[in-house]
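Let us work through a complete example step by step.
Step 1: write down the sequence.
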Amino acid sequence: MPARRPSGKAARAAIVVTIVAVIMNMVLDLGSSGFYATFGVFILLVLSDFGGPLKTRFLAYLVTGAVGLVLITLGALAATSLAATLIVTAVVAFALGYVLVLRGYVNAAYLSLLLPYIVSVTTPQKLDTLPTALGAYAAGTVVAAVTAVALWPSRPSSRLSQALGTAVAAAADLVAASPALDPTSSRSRVEARMKDLVAADEAVHKIFDGDLEREGIVSARERALVRVIDDVGRLRFSLGWTTDEADGATSADADLLRATHRTLAHCGSALRGEEALGGQEVRDLYEARDRHIAGLPESADELLAAGRPGELVQTVNTAFRYRVTSFIAAMLARHAFLALGHRAPDSDGAGTVDPVRAEMSRIDAVSAPLHLLRANLTFRSPWFRRAVQIALAVTVAVGVIHELHLTTGFWVVLGIVASLQLTAIRSRKSALSVAVGTAAGFAICAALVYLVGHNMLLLICLLPVVAFLTVWVPRGKLAVPVKQAGYTVWFVLLVSLSHHDLTLQVDESRIIDVGTGLVVSLLVTAVLWPRGVASRVREVLDSSVRATAGFFAATYSYFASAMTAEDEAAVSAAAQHAVAGRDRATEAYDLAISQGGSAEEDAAHWMVVNNAVDHAFFAGSMVRGLAAYGLAPAPDAEVARELESAARRAADEFAESINGSLDRPTGAPPAGSSHDALSAGIGETIAGWASGPAEVSFEIPPSTFSMSRGHAAISLLWAQDWLTYFRWMAVHSQPARADDPPAQEARPVR
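Step 2: predict the structure and record it as tokens.
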């Protein structure tokens, strides 16, 4: 469905910008200081586009305006010296370019922050006039903020939220088709539901991946919406693993699945806007998980006491599979609540056994904005390099402005921003579009000079018409040249209004300024990004895969340890290393996809690898979280060593096979001697506890531990289950090769 034209945005920009321009220039006649009010309204209403609830949107305008005041002051102070100008410009441009990695509100505010600084630093003025300029800009900010939420505020239906709702509903349908809930369900029905989920998840990624203007992680609402995407991917994988073998669910498992289904169905409808979001279904899921885990150790004790360790193994392994799905569903529900502007239901109540919220908070914490910024603060990160590219281009441009004494320097920067791309080829194409649009605007202005002349009344009447069409018309392939033509005419009219005369001299200056910006952007891109980001994606992904594999292996070392402060510090360091690598890989992938070209051919491969990293990190996080359930450390030293060794081998195999260094297997991991021996060893250990005391006591220097034999059995089985999950994921989330049979190509989990 084609996007609706922004009629409301165009109308308010046309009306309000014109009114402010007339008041500042024709009524108050504030000159250059008054220009800041018009300029502030223009950039905030036209170049910024904040979404979300009206209250959040209003605050976003005010915060952007407040930061703009700081940057204007900084620019005015730096303009007193060329050296200070260049140094401060480099720092400001780099900082603004670097935080774009956060997307969302930061991306929407980018030009509204950069341009006020450029105007200030390239338009020297006496410092005693600075307070008047700041006051005018502050007034313009308030006018823009009030206008944006009072006059035709856009209430866009998020395509991403709609697509996520469809994917979550598909997951709910797949859960409902489980034989554990519907004994009449057939394998073909389950496979059909899985295909629906796969298609819905891929539709989400088509909207999300490679979109540099998508929702970000600055606000809690957008951050939660982005996290729902990860939850859907994990859910897709978990459900594929759960339905991969025959079901052997108990009544407790079925009860947990019913609660999972209700929660997912409710969240799917809410994300699509079909119903209000309440908290009872989520609380029911928490309670079902509490009952499930509360009864499991007791059942394990009873089965061991009855001498039925084989039945215990089957019961615990099956319960584990459904608990994984229920945990992901609980995470998704929590994020859906936050994404829709509600408080997530509190899961901490009297008698709570399952520490769900603690695990969720720890997993969520690794995706905080500061983590993402810290992860990309290295020259290995394409986002860091892009920020350097922006800083270099803008700094060179500002230096040229000073040397050539250009009068409207911010148009140089607009020329840079409009044409600065990630590859030299795309920069040339973008620069051509900008140049064509500017020339077309110049031709229109020439006609207006001839037709309008010195008729200021007619000029004022033309101003809202041009403003409305500039915002409303651009769409599709001609958006860039049409916007440039519109901005050219609009700007000439605004400046002419301040001069009380319509003249082509202003437009000639703009031609020179934009041309300067285009040349600078082309030169900088040719030096820094001749081939774009795609060439670096492989290297970044490789580093991410190996760091995550290392973290997964480290969690089993932690499981086998006494869990001292030193042990916790070691696994935390591995987690931080993995998170940094994962974040760099995700951002490199997105930048590469956004540049198009040959990167689009590799997009599916990169997405599979990138999501395999996320699944592996999730598995490692859950192994690390076994202690929260009282299921760690490992209650048997010999089995712990075998688990640790098996995890290291699996992690190495994962890293090598995902990166393509080894031939990729085409089916399940070989049931080789090591894995079979591990299963047999765990089975023998658990069977030995059947004839022993009710409490299992063990020592891991320097500490002594004790847990019930039921808990001990669950501890070893779930540690093995996460290893099995990891091995299964390593196979089914590997990139498809051209010579693979069709059936295998359909298997990757993204």
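Step 3: interpret the result. The beta strands are 695-700, 703-708.
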